Amino acid sequence: MSVKIRLARGGAKKRPYYRIVVADIRMPRDGRYIERVGSYNPLLPRDHEDRVSLDKERITDWLSKGAKPTDRVARFLDEAGILKREPKNNPQKAKPKKEPEPKEEAVAEEAPAEEAKTEEAPAEEAPAEEAPAEEAPAEEAKTEEAPAEEAPAEEAKTEEAPAEEAKTEEAPAEEAPADKEDK
User: Do residues 102 and 110 touch, judged by C-beta distance below 8 A?
Assistant: First the structure.
């Protein structure tokens, strides 16, 4: 029969409380156990005396009989001075994972696209204030930068611009002959 000294979870949802138990390895985590040898309350501060309580005599007895502690229980036993636990060496722990790097690149790719949109928006407003002759080159530059979906809408704007120019040119032309007739 293989025996482990491990944690058995108790307590309510989001309020964990653990019993340190000696149990057969075939039993479920929170299932039947042989003996309770301590408790662990992770909600208490690290320096609180009731955070981890151990029955040192029973634990040493079970260790002498061949019980193996889990890693978490071995940490508690090492702090209590019952069992010497060698710290594990994980050189990969300090290295960053590869997943965050593509996310940063995706953000970097989106940033220029957003900047281009913000640059285009003032450019659309500016030609409306300026003379119509300057409007056409600005819109041609936009069509080169804009995706294919936006291009037809901007071309429609360029077609409307000459019509507006024609109206503005016709109005003074009509007024001019009328003025000549009055004289």
Answer: no
Q: What is the pLDDT of residues 19-51, one digit of tens each?
A: 999 999 999 989 999 999 999 999 999 999 999
Dist. CA 104–CA 130, nearest whole Å = 40
Q: What are phi and psi of 46, to 5 degrees?
A: -60, -35
Torsion of CA 97, 90, 46, 67, to 10 degrees: 130
* The model's pTM: 0.49
Contact 143, 151 (CB under 8 A): yes
What are the distances in angstroms from CA 9 to CA 13, 27, 28, 48?
11, 13, 11, 20
> Rounded to 5 degrees, what angle do the CA atoms 43, 58, 30 make?
50
SS3 content of the chain, % helix, strand, coil (to 5): 50, 15, 30
Query: Residues 88, 90, 91, 96: what is their CA dihedral angle, to the nearest 10 degrees?
Result: -150
Distances (CA, A) of 65 to 54, 55, 108, 170: 18, 16, 60, 108
Rg (CA), the chain: 39
